[in-house]
Amino acid sequence: MNVPTMADMMAQGKQPEVLFWVGAAGSYDDRAKKITRAFVKILQQANVDFAVLGTEESSTGDAAKRAGNEFLFQMQAMTNIEILNAYEVKTIVTCDPHSFNTLKNEYPGLGGKYKVYHHTQYISKLIKDGRLNIEGENLKGKRLTYHDPCYLGRANNVYETPRDLINQLGVKSTEMKRSRSTALCCGAGGAQMFKEPERGDMDINILRTKDALETNPQIIATGCPYCNTMMTDGVKFHLKEDQIVVKDIAELIAEANSL
Amino acid sequence: MEKFLPNILFAVILIAGGGYFAMNVRKLIRNIKLGKDVDRSDRKNERWKNMAKIALGQYKMVRRPLSGILHIVVYVGFLLINIEMLEIVIDGLFGTHRVFQPLIGNGLYGFLIGSFEVMALLVLVAVIIFWLRRNIEKVKRFWNKEMQGWPKNDGNIILYFEMVLMSLFLIMNATDVPFQEAGAGNVISQFIAPWFSGFSAEELHVIEKGAWWLHIVGILIFLNYLYYSKHLHILLAFPNTFYANLKPKGQFTNVEAVTKEVQMMMDPNADPYAMPEEGEDEGEPEKFGASDVTDLNWVQLMNAYTCTECGRCTSSCPANLTGKELSPRAIMMKTRDRVEEVGKNIDANGGEFKPDGKQLLDDYITREELWACTSCNACVQECPIGIDPLSIIMEMRRYLVMEESSAPQELNMMMTNIENNGAPWQYSQMDRLNWKDE
């Protein structure tokens, strides 16, 4: 894929219209990398002039902050802000609601002020601006349920934008009993992704996947690489991996557009 | 003199009841102020609006329609019937009887008392349903671990208080012969009056006076019960919604003391061996995070006193729903218990806290609870009066990590990875862009 970096751009004296913040999961996790690639295809289809930081990108510090390590968070934040400001970045888009939340809400107080979009918001904007269409009928009639990522939904009140996109896919979408502001967490937030759960009688992702299974879906859609991992594991636990796929909205749009 | 005995007695009871309550309110404010300062003086308009909408308007209560609507009935009834308190106090002090009746005329008076009677009946019904939900239907959130013993009794005692007070109000009206004869406003009590038809006029007068006295004394006892119960929310819901966090729920505070240190570390011109300048007072090095209630801010402590233990938070907490130890309600209850303990310690030691070898962490809130949180904000979202248990959990995690370095091992590995290679996993930063060619 042709993915320019900010350093490339700068060398050519150019400033992209948006920086794509890939995030750690999107860069290294095999499943999340597919989301990253799907989103890049969408950006390319819409002729968006974008760039990534590449090897200059580093953890936003979200997981460290939620684990209680404010030092590490602020070290990461200030290092990232220095780089972002050096490149005079104004607009950022990311597929990770955790990076989205941290960049949007927690960086400004440390000197990093940017217009930050979650990728569903950015795609929605591209459609509104007439730069992108959701075309194909590849997903028409498929049964789908959408899982709200906590850091997109409750944390930032973004509930409708992902749903608007889903509605344009021609799928048959059913809400889970707990959705929007009452959505149940997938179990990954607050640095839980990186540790074993405390003792209890069930893992959270198993419970959340049960919510999804009650809608009898073929697709569980979400907008977060960590939710994706958790729900995928949940589907496997319930032995449904033959019937149900867990997909990011970016992947669904790429599929609809046969990208 | 004897003639004025009831008036004097009434005044004494009123002053004693009011005075004792005022003393406890002072204590309450003192205890809340044990918390650190936090500035919530911004965006005043939004704050007033929130208070009007969430506390006065009960806007978040109806997220759960049944309990929400019943609660609104009790709340409106409580507000309206308290208007009647004004008359009761005047009657008590001056020995009058239904002083407003001639003043505002039978029509208006009848309308007012009539609506109070209807509300009293509705409140009685709602409170009985509440009792049934707690004790017979056994709604799960009233039976969690932290709801055993006193919290369970506390919930029921409040319901009994309300049942008795409403009944007394109706009985008082039903046995008031002139009031029944006037026939204005006795919309409910006229159906109760026949139950007392066997009594003589004098006996009825005694019953009416008895109900009147029990009603007012009951209200004063209830008022003073508040401080010792979860029921303080009827007052604190207002400041609590006013001072609640207005920022996006996902935005956690950036610790300022850390910012200063990190800036120093990153400043290439900073002299790491610099001595403090002459006359510059370095003060105590700041403690990071919270291990006790005095490390929390006053809004968090007010949150703890405001919590009425309804358990909507806990019943939506993913950790609690999957059998983990964590319950956001218990976080609030334990915080309050510890503030109370610190307050009592201060009272017992002449205004100064004497170290008691205890703290909020470990003695009240366990590490297991703190590490089970996914920071999903469901508890914050669900609280009908703006309590934020998550902020307390985060402050305590900060203490565990920054003061004690005692995060779970896997989290330490995750943090080491972020430090070394800028990702929570052990991948080389040089491989960050590999995805584009795969």
Question: Strands, helices and their partners?
Answer:
The complex is a heterodimer of chains A (259) and B (438).
Chain A: H1 6-11, E1 18-21, H2 23-28, H3 30-45, E2 50-51, H4 62-66, H5 70-86, E3 91-94, H6 97-106, E4 115-118, H7 119-128, E5 143-146, H8 160-167, E6 172-173, H9 204-213, E7 219-222, H10 225-237, E8 245-248, H11 249-256
Parallel strand pairs in A: 1-2, 1-3, 3-4, 5-6, 5-7, 7-8
Chain B: H1 5-32, H2 44-56, H3 65-94, H4 100-135, H5 150-174, H6 177-182, H7 189-192, H8 201-225, H9 233-242, H10 256-266, H11 298-306, H12 318-321, H13 328-348, H14 367-371, H15 378-382, H16 389-403, H17 409-421
Helix pairs in contact in B: 1-3, 1-8, 1-13, 2-9, 3-4, 4-5, 5-8, 9-11, 11-13, 13-16
Bin the strand percentage of chain A.
5-15%
CATH topology of the largest domain in chain A: Rossmann fold
Low-confidence stretches of chain A: none
Ranges of chain B with pLDDT <50 over ≥5 residues?
A: none
The number of domains of chain A is 2
The largest interface is:
A-B, 72 and 70 residues
Quaternary status of these chains? heterodimer
Q: Could you state the order of secondary-structure elements of chain B as H and E?
A: HHHHHHHHHHHHHHHHH
How would you briefly describe this protein structure?
The complex is a heterodimer of chains A (259) and B (438). With 259 residues, chain A is α/β, with parallel strands linked by helices. In chain A, strands 2-1-3-4 form a 4-stranded parallel sheet.
